[in-house]
Specification:
Layout (H helix, E strand, L loop, with lengths): L2 H28 L3 E5 L2 E5 L5 E2 L5
Antiparallel strand pairs: 1-2, 2-3
């Protein structure tokens, strides 16, 4: 892989990570749980920081 292409991918990854972090923070501010998938199971991060596998909806 060329160095320019590698730098491009790193920049896109950085931009994507920032966008996800902003979206997660907005969800917390609005009281909406963040949802993740780990080992084919849904994990919910509640606005108070608690992590659960129980669907809060």
């Amino acid at each position: 892989m060329s160095p320019k292409l590698y730098q491009f991918f790193l920049e896109m990854l950085r931009i994507g990570n920032r966008a996800v972090q902003k979206a997660q923070q907005k969800n917390r501010e609005k009281g909406i749980p963040n949802v993740y998938a780990r080992h084919n199971k849904l994990i919910f991060e509640l606005p108070n920081g608690k992590i659960t596998s129980v669907n809060p909806f």
